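@channel sequence for tomorrow's demo:
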Amino acid sequence: MLEVDSVSAGYGALTILRDVSLKVGDGEAVALVGANGAGKTTLVRTVCGLLRARGGRIVKNGTDITATPPHDLARHGLAVVLENRRLFGELSVRENLALAETVGRRARGGQMRFTWDEVTALFPVVKERLDSAVELLSGGQQQMVAIARALLLQPDLLIMDEPSTGLAPKVVKDILLVIKALRERGMGLLLIEQNVGIASEITDRAYVMALGSIVHEIGVGEWQSFLKDERLVKAYLG
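structure tokens (generated this afternoon):
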């Protein structure tokens, strides 16, 4: 489904990513974990076209999307929830979602994996605030709107960058329940998360990043053994 092959990227003269490679298979949930500054968000920005790759390639369903601009990702079945969410704060929740629904319908030729009613049903709080300006919502509510918007783009792969950061435990729990429901529907997931407890709960396997490189892989069924190895956890996650 998604293959990142020897990708390098950075800002100005500074190289952040160095030959990063990872894969996410059809319907698979994979985590990318690492301490702050490891390069996780830089990788997300490179995959979604906000940052140009300096080397390597990014392939989605057999198509090279390395140079694909962010606004064209939906056509390839890819949606991203960035850490800063990038919602239109002055618009209502309904208007934010309607824009995504229009883009998703056009990008996928009218084939809808998620209907409006299905998406809003996943987030009852969002459904209750459809006519509220996004900028008036709490951080947790905005995160739910961002996820709902991403789903209306009709992706088969959802990338989420630090979805639990700064949110109350109750909100995090609600979001995890939604992610688990999406997994049951066969949604592919690449979760970028510093909290390895959360990552281990909802993903099959993981890549560990440090200093802009993949330094360790956690295979299927290996999460618990990794978390019990204090040496590895301290070395890679601080």
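heads up for whoever presents: The first helix runs from residue 40 to 47.
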